[in-house]
Design goal:
Distance between the termini of chain B: 64 Å
Order of helices and strands of chain B: HHHHHEEHH
Distance between the termini of chain A: 46 Å
Shape of chain A: flat
Helix content of chain A: 55-70%
Largest sheet of chain A: none
Number of helices of chain B: 7
Radius of gyration of chain B: 21 Å
Structural class of chain A: mainly alpha
Number of helices of chain A: 3
Oligomer: heterodimer
CATH class of chain B: Mainly Alpha
Number of strands of chain A: 0
Strand content of chain A: under 5%
Structural class of chain B: mainly alpha
CATH superfamily of chain B: Cytochrome c oxidase, subunit III, four-helix bundle
CATH architecture of chain B: Up-down Bundle
Strand order of the largest sheet of chain B: 1-2
Radius of gyration of chain A: 22 Å
Largest interface: A-B, 55 and 58 residues
Largest sheet of chain B: 2 strands, antiparallel
Order of helices and strands of chain A: HHH
Chain lengths: 118, 215
């Protein structure tokens, strides 16, 4: 770690950008973008997260092995989310194999339950 | 030189290595925290996909104004925290204390606004387990959303409270001159924790408050 402090200007620019992105995400939330509302909100949140991680948390100038650990964190998180959702969200995409019995549900509210494509 | 020597624990070759080790350990801890909150976010994603209408209705029970104000408050606290770390590293202990106290104030403001939101939820009878009466379609699924709301923001608030305690300790130590360079690593580590808690909120705010307000 070189431990050269970042310039004050860097912090101010990051801070102002974070505030601007907060305003942007709040405004965009009121527009109906269909399913892109979620995408845009997550992209802006990720951009803000990266700004905080890289500059406020000094990841741009820490040792490579520390950067590697941080990247590993994102990788494990991606495994958790992608593998779990790829199970849950694809249930019901295919017909039941022959001989399997469908699980009947008596709960009418369950009809809004896990569905393909939603 | 002798002072710098005293600041190095005997298992380290030098200050650089000691600082690297402390930073690395904190990042490993933060990765476990990412996985901890990641499980909650995944659970939220699953049930939001399962009950989109109910989760949209539940989301509209959140107060976007207060959430947005709190986001600004927390980002500002991260900014003052970053400035505190920078001042401490430069040996400007008075500036560091001012920035840390500002961070404490903003953190407490965040928790105060959070408490206000919780109080409103109680008044509106939408606190699962304690006081929940919601008469509308898919009340149970909306209750589930509110459970996620309280679970996630509650755990986040707990992290904030821990952060406030740690920052208070940093203020005391800095005032006593115990964190003058090269012993300023604890403030850097505290900063890492504080910024992480900020990032959790950066994701909570759009997911709980924003994604369904347009409907």
């Amino acid at each position: 770690m070189t431990h050269q402090p970042l310039r004050l200007r860097t912090y101010v620019v990051v801070f102002v950008t974070l505030l601007a992105l907060t305003g942007l995400t709040t405004l965009l939330a009121y527009l109906d973008l269909g399913r892109f509302n979620l995408v845009v909100a997550l992209l802006i949140a990720a951009a803000k997260g990266f700004l905080v991680v890289l500059f406020f948390m000094h990841l741009v100038q820490t040792a490579h092995r520390t950067q590697f650990v941080a990247a590993a964190g994102i990788f494990w998180l991606a495994l958790l989310v992608v593998l779990t959702l790829s199970d849950v969200l694809t249930r019901g995409w295919f017909e039941q194999p022959h001989g399997w019995s469908a699980i009947e549900s008596n709960d009418s509210a369950d009809q809004s339950g896990i569905r393909a494509g939603r | 030189m002798s002072e710098a020597h005293a600041a190095v624990a005997h298992q380290f070759e030098g200050l650089e290595q000691q600082r690297d080790a402390a930073t690395l350990a904190m990042w490993i801890f933060l990765v476990t925290e990412v996985m901890f909150f990641g499980g909650l976010f995944t659970g939220y994603a699953i049930y939001r996909a399962s009950y989109p209408e109910a989760f949209a209705a539940g989301s509209r029970l959140c107060e976007v104004n207060l959430g947005a104000i709190n986001t600004v408050v927390l980002i500002t606290s991260s900014f003052t925290m970053a400035l505190a770390v920078r001042a401490a590293a430069a040996g400007r202990s008075r500036a560091a204390i001012v920035c840390l106290v500002l961070t404490l104030g903003l953190g407490a403001t965040f928790l105060g606004i959070k408490f206000l939101e919780y109080a409103h939820k109680y008044e509106e009878h939408i606190v699962p387990g304690l006081n929940f009466t919601y008469s509308g379609p898919s009340a149970r699924q909306i209750e589930l959303f509110i459970c996620f709301y309280f679970g996630m923001t509650g755990l986040h608030a707990l992290h904030m409270i821990i952060g406030l305690v740690v920052v208070t300790v940093m203020v005391i130590f800095t005032a006593r001159g115990r964190l003058a360079p090269p012993k300023d690593t604890p403030i850097e580590i505290t900063g890492l924790y504080w910024h992480f808690v900020d990032i959790v909120w950066i994701f909570l705010f759009p997911l709980l408050y924003l994604v369904d307000v347009h409907r």
